[in-house]
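[audit] Reproducing an earlier prediction to check determinism. Same input, same settings, fresh worker. If the C-alpha cells differ from the archived copy the diff job will pick it up downstream; this log only records the rerun itself.
[audit] input (205 residues):
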Amino acid sequence: MSLCFALVLCAAQAPDSTTAALGFIEDAAGGTAVAPPQETKPAFSYSYVELGYLLLDSDGLDETVQGWRATGSFDFLFGSFLQATYTDASDSGEDYNEARLGVGYHLTLSSSLDLFGIASYARQDLDGSNVDDVDGGGALVAGARYLLTSRIELNGQLEWVNLDESDGGAGVGARYYLTDYISFGANVRFLDNDEELLLGVRLQF
C-alpha cells in the first residue's frame, strides 16, 4: 500500500517524467525495444571556408617560413566543387606566396568514406636572398576522407604539380569536428623537397 502511495505522489509532482518512465516499462513489457538516440556523423562537405597557420620548409628558400593559408570551397552540382587557396608565408626576408584556383569532384562511397580529385592552376612566387622566381602551371590532387569516429576524420592525398619543374608528393591529416559545422584540422604535406605543417579551423555549410 505504501509503494502505491509513493508512485501516486511522484506522478502528481512530475507527470511528464513519470509518464515517460511508465511508457518505457510498457514498451519493454510488450516486447518493443526502445533504441537510445544515436550520435549523428557530420556529412562530408565541400562547401566551406578555412583559415590556418602554416609552417613551411621550402627547398627554394634559405629559411623556414611561417604564415597563413586561406581556402574557400563551394559544392555546386552533382558532386562537383570549386576551390580557391591562397598562401602567404615569410621570415627573415624570405617570402613565399602561392595561389590556386581549381575544380574538383567527390564521390561518396559510404557514410564514412569519400574520394575526391582536384585539378587546379597554381601560381607561385618565391622571393629570397638567392631566389626571385614567379612560376605558374597545373596541379592535380587525388585523395580520400575517412570518418574514424563520429567526430574524427582521417584524410590523405597524392599530389602532382608542374611549376618550374614536375614534382610529386603526398599529405596526411586529421580533423576533429567540434560541431557539424566547425572543425579543427592538422595536416602535414611533402612535395618534392618541401615540407609543411598546417593547423586550421574550418566553417562548413
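[audit] rerun output stored. Observation attached for the diff report: The beta strands are 48-57, 65-77, 80-91, 94-110, 113-127, 132-147, 152-162, 166-177, 182-191, 194-204.
[audit] end
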